Amino acid sequence: FNIKKGAFVKLYFVNDIGVSRFRLFPFFISLIIAPFCSARIVSPGERLWDMQRLVTESSCDATIHQTDFAGGAMTISSTGVYCFAEDLSGAITIAADWVTLDFGGHCLAGSLSISSDKVTIKNGTILPTVAGGSDGITVTSSSNGARIYDVVIQCEDQSSSGVGLNGMLINGNNWEVYNCAVIAGAGNSATNDGGNAIVISASANNIAVHDCILYGADGGNSSSGSIAGAGGHGIDVDAGATQIEIANCTIFKTGDGGANGSTGDGGDGGHGVNVTSGATEIRSEEHTSELQSH
């Protein structure tokens, strides 16, 4: 610990239930804690999540190479810190608890699926492809207590008829997303909606999204007699989702509805934050967006 004389110190205790925070005098810290533990220095402003592992995340337990993919896919099935050795292409599934995936500034041309607990995704770029057919990051309903930060997601637009890709689809519980930039993919052709930057599904509970830049994508244009696709939202909160906090985000763009044909209807435009009726305990503050319920 890096403790200055006369300063208060905050201690964070992370467990399966949640986080408890205490403010203690440094006198008691030095008497009670210092003799019994050795810990790395906590940098000023470091987040509490960065203390949930007792090992330093600067070391890697394994590095990932393109040769580790079989048939364009790979699964991480053991606890550890995994680091990209290079830019990669394919689909990664994380099926083990307590996994940190550190892109190290590299790029994944493909998608990421998470079905386990206590997962950290950080420091890189994901480029979901139409050919891959999956959203950038999919968090399944079985995933609990994890985070995504310092990640850029830029979805590929549909080049033929199809619904736009979402940047993130969160079905799990107790997830935090921060300091990310997410660009959804545009839909193509009639009735095909644009993708949403982030979708928080009906099964999601206790999700925090903050300090992110988000882009909804455009809907597909219609042909004669058809309805055009709707524009995507910055964040789409589905009915059934509970305890959702959105703060300090910039919705840089909402998706435009697709253009109408000679007799077709134009699609509806997207919204900054779209909350479907039936979602509960939604807190949205201090961000540039348009809030819409339907």
**SSE string:** EEHEEEEEEEEEEEEEEEEEEEEE
> What's the overall geometry?
globular
* N-to-C span: 50 Å
Average pLDDT works out at 81
* Cα radius of gyration in angstroms: 21 Å
Total count of helical runs of at least 4 residues: 1
Roughly what percent helix? under 10%
> What would you call the quaternary organization?
single chain
What is the strand content? 35-45%
Tally of DSSP β-strands: 23
Which residues sit in consecutive blocks of at least 5 with pLDDT less than 50? 1-42, 48-57, 290-294
Largest sheet: 21 strands, parallel
Structural class: mainly beta
Question: What's this entry about, in short?
Answer:
This protein has 294 residues and is mainly beta.
Provide key terms for this protein:
294 residues; mainly beta; 21-stranded parallel β-sheet; two-stranded antiparallel sheet; 1 helix; 23 strands; disordered N terminus
